[in-house]
Amino acid sequence: LFLSYLFPFDSLICMLLGISFTVWFTLLLVFIIVPAIFGVSFGIRRVYMKSLIKLFEWATLRMERGAKEKNQHLYKPYSNGIIAKEPVSLEQEIQEMRRGSAEPEFDMSDIFYFCRRGVESIVDDEVTKRFTAEELESWNLLTRSNYNFHHISTRLTALWGMGVLIRYGFLLPLRVTLAFTGVGLLVVLTSIVGLFPNGRMKNYLSDKVHLMCYRICVRALTAIITYHDSENKPKNGGICVANHTSPIDVIILASDGCYAMVGQVHGGLMGVIQRAMVKACPHIWFERSEVKDRHLVAKRLSDHVADESKLPILIFPEGTCINNTSVMMFKKGSFEIGCTVYPVAIKYDPRFGDAFWNSSKFGMVNYLLHMMSSWAIVCSVWYLPPMSRMEGEDAVQFANRVKAAIARKGGLADLLWDGGLKRGKVKEVFKEEQQKLYSKVLVGSSEDRSRS
Amino acid sequence: MGSRASSLLREEDIEEIKKETGFSHSQITRLYSRFHSLDKGENGALSREDFQRIPELAINPLGDRIINAFFPEGTNKKYTAREDQVNFRGFMRTLAHFRPVEDNEKNKDLTSGEPLNSRTNKLHFAFQLYDLDRDDKISRDELLQVLRMMVGVNISDEQLGSIADRTIQEADTNGDMCISFSEFTKVLEKVDVEQKMSIRFLH
């Protein structure tokens, strides 16, 4: 108030600013932070989500009406496919073609199969579309998901404009504040808990602190999560595996249960957070050099699960972010350890904000900005019943079984392809398999002839 | 606030492609989305690397030959700006060969002359997969090379050689030890080319 001596009008402004900040922070505290601490919810976010759905439906109707008026087609994304593929195998096709002619070993028409398959894969393949954001059926009033939606009337444009104001003017600052609060509290409180002697008190406090901070982060993203089958939640001495769409997966799972994280040691802010977290309870951080050593990694993981007092490990076996329409190959490392595996399926609803991190296109900061300026993050989490490796099953088969269960529950496509194809080339051995198959058909027919 | 991919595709272009290839409006816009997603460099054209990034194509034994079919010889400015790039018109023109023949009745707009997806043109597409040097005949050498691509290391040179010899013997009618396009067509006259070289594009 000493400012009032200098600038009589500015004192009024200062007072107003002061009041609004106080109101702002009180609201924040009451409606967001306190519920986060106690794990309760007012249900504001769900009401928000329902109103958004109504808004999107209205927008779609308007666009369809606009298209009809101009007598044009409304763009329908190819989520139903551009082509219908015949599920015919190489052998089947070649046998079919042979039946008519007088069994030559090789027919010039054999090429048709490879040719057609090749062009089919150019038009629509199972892999490349998993590494870009899922296309939406109808527009959700965000510029970034507008690939080809025309017939946007003035009213819709106005709505979009209002949306921009709300998202960037109100939601984004709110969320950034919450994010800083959440992360800051995590670092500070875990360091404090780290000062306690090891024992039940420390574990209890560590759990509570972690949960609270993750819940604040959940609100920082306006994430509306529905957890199913919580009786199957992972227990100590096990490994929790889940499909990977974005770094946010960690926050979503860790706000409902306590896990030991696994990851590479980072520098910068990430490193600060990692060092603080590990003070409160044991997480598994690897140096960059250690990551290559598979035996070392396996040993550290087995040692951790052998200790019943330590929390279940959280691992994403795909190794990279996939766009949440499919589950790709699980790396077998976590399945060789021989402990109980708790599968979890995470499915995001892309209408409210696309959670997929396209790491080849966007950096982390860019991605977080996208996240925090979307409408919301809506997802469902299913805890599947625990699985263990069966007699006579090797690690790869076990991994595939878990993967199939997760894909089925989450309604995702189950693929055998490696997520590493996002950046790397496919292995030559797969082409060699195709060649071997064809050779067998060729040589096989000559063997039949020599027998008859 | 405009749209991303398809704002680059104008209505006039769509109409021209419709006339040339016979695809419908919605098929063209959807294929344009696909073209755009393959175009990592975002320069409106696809290079050979863009195709090779498709895993299912990379493991196809004839993948490289198929990719080559998209890059016609010479630089016809309508389809390629540079020799190693194909633009959307060229992409659609090549894909048009695989339209089912039945679809032609639905689209009366086609320019006169033989449609790209006629039996002859489909056969010609396959012929060009064999004809490595584009001299309009398949020599024994070329046939051997393509066979080698299809079987990998699993069949010996001698066996492959005898397969090639037999094939040429059966097809060659004018004794020049090469298979011309008409000889190729004759050999395959009983094969249901229309069905085997067609892809069911959804409407």
Shape of chain B: globular
Mass-distribution shape of chain A: flat
The helix fraction of chain A, in percent, is 40-55%
Uncertain segments of chain B: none
What fraction of the residues of chain A are assigned to beta strands by DSSP? 5-15%
Give the biggest beta sheet of chain B: 2 strands, antiparallel
Broad structural category of chain A: alpha/beta
Biggest protein-protein contact in the assembly: A-B, 68 and 65 residues
Sheet with the most strands, sense and barrel status of chain A: 7 strands, mixed
Measured distance between first and last alpha carbons of chain A: 107 Å
Task: Please compute the radius of gyration of chain A using only Cα atoms.
Answer: 27 Å
Radius of gyration of chain B: 19 Å
The percent range for strand residues of chain B is: 5-15%
Task: Determine the mean pLDDT of chain B.
Answer: 85
Give the helix level of chain B as a range of percent. Answer: 40-55%
Number of helices of chain B: 11
- Oligomerization status of the protein chains: heterodimer
The largest beta-sheet of chain B arranges its strands as 1-2
Regions with little confidence, pLDDT below 50 for 5+ residues of chain A = 447-452
Q: How many angstroms does the end-to-end distance of chain B come to? A: 28 Å
What does this structure look like?
- The complex is a heterodimer of chains A (452) and B (203).
- Chain A is an alpha/beta fold.
- Chain A is built from 13 helices and ten strands.
- The longest helix of chain A is centred in the middle third of the chain and has 41 residues, at 154-194.
- In chain A, 32% of the residues are buried.
- The model of chain A is unreliable at 447-452 (pLDDT under 50).
- Chain B is mainly α and 203 residues long.
- Helix content of chain B is 49%, strand content 6%.
- Chain B is built from eleven helices and five strands; from the N terminus they run ααβαααβααβααβααβ.
- Chain B has helices at residues 11-21, 25-38, 48-52, 55-58, 63-69, 88-96, 119-130, 140-151, 157-171, 181-187, 193-196, and strands at residues 45-47, 85-87, 137-138, 179-180, 200-201.
- A two-stranded antiparallel ribbon of chain B has the order 1-2.
- The mean pLDDT of chain B is 85.
- The chains are: A alpha/beta (452), B mainly alpha (203).
- Strand 1 of chain A pairs antiparallel with strand 5 (200-201) of chain B, so a sheet runs across the interface.
